[in-house]
């Protein structure tokens, strides 16, 4: 951990943390999870919150029984969501010391709100310090 000896050190440390969190948020926003069904007939891409971004169906999927086709689609989407969760865990764990997929989303939202409040307070302190 960085040694903090004075307000300037605290401001620099806070700014470094803000930059790390900003990079983390951007990397997560840019990432899309990808998944393929067991028979490789369906490919899905998902983003934040498991939202479906893209779904590609091989024409051969139309030859399947409707329940089999539905299972292929569900499997591809689930695989894409798992890929996205694994990647966001890898992105967030070094910064937040937590794996978001293992926590309640309300807990994560509350943590982000606390980080936002901390950021605002630190920026206010830094601007006051610069005025002196």
TrEMBL record:
SUPFAM superfamilies: YbaB-like
InterPro entries the UniProt entry points to: YbaB-like_sf, YbaB/EbfC
Pfam families: YbaB_DNA_bd
Record-linked Gene3D superfamilies: Nucleoid-associated protein YbaB-like domain (3.30.1310.10)
Molecular function terms, GO-annotated: DNA binding
Name of the featured protein: Uncharacterized protein
Species this protein is from: Paractinoplanes rishiriensis
Lineage summary: Bacteria, Bacillati, Actinomycetota, Actinomycetes, Micromonosporales
């Amino acid at each position: 951990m960085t040694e903090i000896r004075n307000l300037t050190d605290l401001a620099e440390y806070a700014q470094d943390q803000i930059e790390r969190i900003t990079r983390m948020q951007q990397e997560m926003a840019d990432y899309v999870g990808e998944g393929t069904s067991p028979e490789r007939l369906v490919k899905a891409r998902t983003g934040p919150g498991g939202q479906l971004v893209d779904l590609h169906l091989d024409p051969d999927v139309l030859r399947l029984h409707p329940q089999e086709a539905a299972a292929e689609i569900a499997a591809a989407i689930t695989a894409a969501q798992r890929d996205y969760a694994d990647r966001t865990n890898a992105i967030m764990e070094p910064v937040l010391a937590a794996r978001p997929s293992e926590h309640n989303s309300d807990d994560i939202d509350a943590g982000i709100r606390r980080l936002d409040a901390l950021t605002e307070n630190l920026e206010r302190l830094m601007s006051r310090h610069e005025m002196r």
